[in-house]
Design a protein that fits this description.
Number of helices: 6
CATH architecture of the largest domain: 4-Layer Sandwich
Number of domains: 2
Number of strands: 19
Distance between the termini: 67 Å
CATH superfamily of the largest domain: Metallo-dependent phosphatases
Length: 329
């Protein structure tokens, strides 16, 4: 029986903390995102998948430096030129669109600039990839969007729906915040249409929900973008289909920079005591960690400068400082 495979990933946020000038003396995390992005595309070529789908937030914001855009589009163009089609859903960080480029005119690159349906024949199976760019007030707009899409869907061909939205029931953050019904949240009863699967970006935690037996799949982000994600595994997915629909799913983990939060006590104001407190907390941390140091007072914050950190943090450690006391001013 014929099968085809989709490589599905999302929320790459390329350009985030990326040293465009190359003159920064501080460790920047932008390379973490690009490294995983290039690794995923290489896997698509090595495994010869039949289709690649990006679920949105290709870039970390709508206006990014040309160097970041060119590096990203070069990689996508190379993949498309290897005869692997790519579908991209613009996300909220992309402002529901992508920077204009001739690279995007490649016949194997398909971008949802509006609600649309792209048609493919993969391993002899007709697949309809429907989708739309990010919509802020999706709660009230989804029914009309799907009405437009469903008019273009052929009833006897396989179809999937792509978006970049939060759905009711999705969870995020270290305490598991759950999205409830609201103007910016997809309501499961509105997910009408004859779709074999829903693929969405926007939520950075990998998870799969089921509505009326149909999977709603978040691949999650490819790297940790904030310390709220420090406990989350990051990766991408392989989705296998036959003529009946989705038959198998695999989540592939990616290397992600480990994250830790150091809470400093309010009492050690002397440099010696502060140094001792930090050293005791970082002794077991990996050298490539991203560390958030939470300072409770102005007196402690005055010690927390680059020279101070260089004395005992490995060179490959990414350091941020949160000045908690500033919130009380």
């Amino acid at each position: 029986m014929s099968k085809f495979r989709i490589l599905y990933f999302s929320d790459t946020h390329l350009g985030f903390d990326y040293p465009v000038s190359g003159k920064s003396k501080h460790l920047r995390r932008g390379f973490d995102f690009f490294n995983n992005f290039h690794f995923i595309l290489q896997q698509a070529k090595t495994r010869r998948v039949d289709l690649v789908i990006h679920g949105g937030d290709l870039f970390f914001r709508s206006k990014v430096p040309g160097k970041v855009v060119n590096q990203t589009y070069d990689a996508l163009f190379e993949l498309a030129d290897s005869d692997i089609p790519i579908v991209i859903v613009p996300g909220n960080h992309d402002r529901s669109t992508l920077p204009v480029s001739l690279f995007l005119e490649h016949p194997n690159i398909h971008v949802f600039r509006q609600p649309d349906v792209f048609h493919f024949n993969l391993q002899g199976i007709n697949l309809q990839v429907a989708g739309f760019p990010y919509v802020k007030l999706i709660g009230k707009e989804l029914p009309s969007i799907l009405e437009r899409i469903n008019k273009r869907i052929k009833p006897y061909d396989l179809s999937i729906l792509c978006m970049h939205q939060a759905v009711e029931g999705a969870t995020v953050g270290p305490v598991g915040y759950t999205f409830r019904a609201g103007p910016d949240v997809v309501k499961p009863p509105d997910l009408g249409g004859n779709f074999s699967a829903y693929l969405s970006g926007h939520i950075h935690r990998h998870q799969i929900l089921y509505f009326s037996g149909i999977p709603f799949i978040y691949a999650g982000s490819i790297e940790r973008t904030a310390f709220a994600e420090r406990f989350e595994e990051k990766g991408y997915m392989y989705l296998d289909f036959d003529h009946r629909g989705l038959v198998d799913m695999q989540f592939e983990r990616l290397p992600s920079r480990p994250m830790f939060i150091i809470e400093l006590p309010d009492d050690p104001v002397s440099r010696k005591n502060l140094l001792s407190s930090i050293k005791s907390q970082i002794a077991s941390l990996p050298a490539n960690a991203a560390v958030l140091i939470s300072s409770p007072s102005k007196g402690i914050s005055e010690h927390l400068n680059p020279k101070f950190f260089r004395e005992f943090f490995p060179q490959n450690t990414h350091i941020q400082v949160r000045h908690k006391w500033l919130r009380d001013l």
